[in-house]
Amino acid sequence: MTWHYKGIEWQPPEDFSPEDVYGMVYMITNRATARKYVGKKFFWSQKTLPITKKRKRRKRTLVESDWRDYYGSNKHLREEYDQSGPDLFHREILHLCNTKGECAYMEAKEQFDRGVLLTDDYYNGIIQIKLGGNAVKGLCEENKPLQTPKTVL
């Protein structure tokens, strides 16, 4: 199964790197029940290489994650996927993000905007976020919160 972005099948460029895009916010839909799951997935994960004779310290490097075959982390969604297989599910990328912080912000924003905890239409059972303001400085203008209007005396 493939990921879809803006209505078309999405494939990253051949020279895909963390500098291009770090992760995504996605929605997986069960076509039989119409239940959905909104989450985030990073395209890259850190791998720690062991100490060797040539290398005196551990080295950290970024490697591509399992995003191509990923079907969410929710227990109930995974059970239905294991029983039914991939053909029953539609995977859609809602946002491509440049940083971990941007992914966290956009995931929480989508979850709150969609009211995923307020209805049984979603598999989501928790919204968890820990985010600092500096992590989202690079977001475009349309996603920034409105500024408080100045009081005129």
Describe what is shown at a glance.
The chain is of the alpha+beta class and 153 residues long. The protein is built from two helices and seven strands.
Q: What letter string, H or E per element, gives the SSE order?
A: EEEEEEHEH
Question: Quick one: how many beta strands?
Answer: 7
Q: Give me the Rg, rounded.
A: 18 Å
- Helix content bin: 10-25%
Morphology:
globular
Structural class: alpha+beta
Strand content: 25-35%
Strand order of the largest sheet: 2-1-7-3-4
Low-confidence stretches: 145-153
Question: What does it look like?
Answer:
This protein has 153 residues and is an alpha+beta fold. 16% of the residues lie in helices and 27% in strands. The chain has helices at 75-84, 100-114; strands at residues 3-5, 8-10, 23-30, 36-42, 44-49, 59-64, 89-97. A hairpin with a 2-residue loop joins β1 and β2. The longest helix has 15 residues, at 100-114.
